[in-house]
Write a structure and sequence with these properties.
With about 150 residues, the chain is of the alpha+beta class. It contains 1 helix and 9 strands; from the N terminus they run H-E-E-E-E-E-E-E-E-E. The termini are far apart. The relative contact order is 0.19. The N terminus is likely disordered.
Length: about 150
């Protein structure tokens, strides 16, 4: 009896483990796999959404929320907009497509309210970064992320 069940048990176990690993991988905000970008114009209007970017979105009361960066894709600069319901430390870091930190935009405490941080598409050394999709991590009580595409 055990032999007949074991031939089904092992493949089922492997399938369950693969599915569980894939779900955890997709939920990890530090995952360097880029799914796309939330495309916006220079007035912050959402053109095409990527539901994995910039969560939680502004709209409902929350300690922290973010809007999609704009414009995105971008050629010269982009703005990162977020809101805080109370004062707290905020850190904004840009990662390259290879998941290396290329720029720290902000690392300070901010007051409650809405905030906008501009990024000139340069690294910490002041050099223009090449085309590609860069991940922005915002840590403000929670960790969130969004992707920005440099396209010159």
């Amino acid at each position: 009896m055990f032999v007949s069940h074991s031939k089904f048990f092992l493949p089922l176990l492997v399938l369950c483990l693969l599915l569980a690993f894939q779900c955890e991988k997709d939920k990890n905000p530090l995952n360097p796999v880029f799914s796309g970008i939330a495309k916006t114009d220079d007035q912050a209007n959402l053109i095409e959404d990527d539901p994995d970017d910039w969560q939680p979105r502004c709209g409902a009361p929350a300690p922290f929320c973010a809007r999609a960066a704009y414009p995105n894709p971008t050629q010269g600069f982009t703005s990162i907009h977020f809101a805080l319901s109370s004062g707290m430390p905020v850190k904004i870091v840009i990662h390259s497509p290879s998941n290396r930190i290329v720029r720290t935009l902000l690392d300070t405490s901010l007051s409650p309210g809405t905030h906008t941080v501009a990024w000139d598409l340069k690294n910490d050394a002041g050099e223009l970064l090449p085309n590609g999709i860069y991940r922005v991590y915002i840590e403000a009580g929670i960790l969130t992320h969004g992707d920005i595409q440099i396209q010159r």
